[in-house]
Amino acid sequence: MKRVTAFALTALLAGLVPSASAQNREHQQMTADVRMLQEQTQILTTALAALNQTLLEALKTLNARLDQASDADRKAFADQKLLIDNIQDGVRIIRERSNDTNVRMGELREELEALRETVQSLQRAATAPPPFVDPTLPVDPNAPPVTAAPTQPIAPAPTSPSPVVSSTAGLSPTRLYETARADYFAGQWTSAISGFEAFLRAFPRSEQADDAQFHIGETYYAQNQWAQAIAAYNQVIQNYVGTNAVPDAYYKRGLAQERLGQADAARGSWEAVAKNFPDSDAGRLAKQNIDRLGRTP
What we know:
By secondary structure, the protein is mostly helical.
């Protein structure tokens, strides 16, 4: 029995020995494969690192070129903007000088026209016949004696009024307007009104005609002559439609009407300017006064 058991064990061990040898060879093969994969992985890692370094250097070079191109573009844009700004400044200066020249030429044209009218008035005065003296009138005892008298009576010549030279002759519209305006700011109300009225008579189609008429209303308003001020503002509204003095005339007319106790009329004036000229200073002030009237008990 013991011999049978020993034989069986011997046979079992003899069968296990080849199996362990085969497993050892597989283990060695797997180790070799792993080592090979590790080497290949190391090679790929080295290649990837080199490729990454190359890409980084290429990106740095590309970014540097892009920065240079961007700097060049910015400099070109800055130069173009500077050039455009210089051109715009030059155009603005030329436009301003042109406007100044046009204004000056207009003033010279007005002065020439005023001088021409003055010359014509003086010529008419120089060619007018002397005033007729009636010989039948009593002689002034204080007058110097007459050495000789006419032997024949002289037939009376038809009388004609001698031309009168206007007090505004020789004055340009600008000078006449500025003189009246200076009287207004100096508080010379009578002179200011006379000056503005003379300006309107002499130059009714001037660009400053609406301002002259408005300043007549302002002069009356400054003297608390509300009715006359309202009449002057009405002239601005009626005769100078579309000018910049109309909104102010509406607003100041409302103030004068309020001073006379005409609250409804004042509201109507302010509503007109607030509706027709809402973006003007007069329109905004009128809205405030309308609100004030609404809060008044």
